[in-house]
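Quality-control log, excerpt.
Job 1 of 2 completed; input and output follow.
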Amino acid sequence: MYSVPGQAGKLIVVTGSNSGTGKEAARRLGAAGAHVVMAVRTPAKGEQAKAEILEQHPDAQLEVRRIDLADLASVREFAEGLTADGRPVDVLINNAGVMAPPARMTTADGFELQFGSNFLGPFALTLQLLPLIMAAPSPRVITMSSGVANYGRIHFNDLQWERLRYRPMFCYAQSKLADLMFSLRLASIGSDRDLNLMAAAAHPGFTRTNLQTAGASLGRDQPKRMIFNGAGARLVPSQPVEPGTEPLLYAATSPDAVNGGYYGPSGFFGLVGPTTIVKPPGRARDTATASRLWAEAERLTDVTMPIGNRV
């Protein structure tokens, strides 16, 4: 098991920290001494998660704040709140996401839900927090991708899947490829401009969390498990949330993690196992597409790079 080094004195923001990998990251970061901002859409669920973590780690410094990544006004309000506090953000962990709702749904701003929540919301949050992040001594921005990014495509002709036939997992794959491209592009910008910034990405392999059920149950009266139920679950290796969170924690805290790194499980087809560095798929390394995607994200969110010239 990866041992998180001491994080005393650090402020770490973890989105989606009321459950799954986000909650586990908040738990272990809090246990290591960080002041963790648990950024969640539903504060009551965040407070419940906080209470459960404090039962195990009574000295953990945890703070629940509301953010809805499917609403750019909420993202801005959250960023403005942290900015008003004035404390540098040592690590931003873009963990929250939604996976494969059965029918096309939209965000408060009219974006396809997965592209908006998984990519545009974290993109806007990162850029708005960047001045606070850059004020920290050794800042990091860590973004959660997914193994399905390997078959993702960026559909510039229809990013919101308004004309394409909605296919839940292909939409999810697009959003997770976008996350990975964003992380690699941010790392490249940091290097090119000699910024004191580390950007890296992670994926959890096949980790058993409510991600597989929550998205698939949106718009349904009854919860539904989306993938690998019954016999299928026995055929495909999976892992609990503790090891599944380790690539994210490694990227966020390891002294050996590198700018532009991508971390995931090392076992069977990248589904399970100890953390290793992963080679991003070729599409994620397409710099022209990444630059175009960044520009489109700036246009859609009306948020631009606050440090140096626009990308």
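Job 2 of 2 completed; input and output follow.
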Amino acid sequence: MKLVLSVAVLSLLVLPACRRADLGASARVKVDLAGAWVRDLRDGGPGVEGFDLRADGSVALLGIFSMNGIAWTVSRDELVISTNTDRDAQPNPSRLRIESVERDVLTLRADPPDYLAGTFRRSEVEHVAGVVTYLEPMALPADARVEVRLTRGERLLARALIAPKGAVPIPFALSYLPEPAADARGAALEARILTADRPLFASAAPVPVDAGALGVELLVGRAPAKQ
């Protein structure tokens, strides 16, 4: 009887220690993974795509505009990246097994296959952040979404689709890949507030912005009604 009790007590002591060890390992892996990771485009075209795993737990997709990044975390040996789409706002988690992570190379596997699986390399990334606001004294509908776009000329550099969690101003953060050569045309930001795919508010004109700008205010006005 004493032996049984001793084993039971030992199990109670060991299990919390194992959980603490798992949490500690996940935290270390999360620190190792934080930052931007890219790969060559899967269709063989010029350019790269990937994701920016931010220290605050949010994620930005780089060069992938069919999905929107929401959040990321590490659970045991998995990198979990949550995304959604313009048509479906519900988070969709990609569970990616961390096959290997070295200083500059990350290999992820998924079964069943997942678009975000593959081998990635570390990359530099640029950030632009600020707030979207409007002057009218009104609350946004529950289904409102805020779209912020960073462009250079006709080319889309970054995009975020945000579900507002409170009143304006609404914070945003964009990540995008630095370009190999300086472009004669500067980058610019614009924003829209949408409901049921209809614009309620929109920027009157794109706002020029420099790389690394962190206090940008985008003022949107009432969008014109369709004729």
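Post-run check on job 2. The two ends are 85 Å apart (CA to CA).
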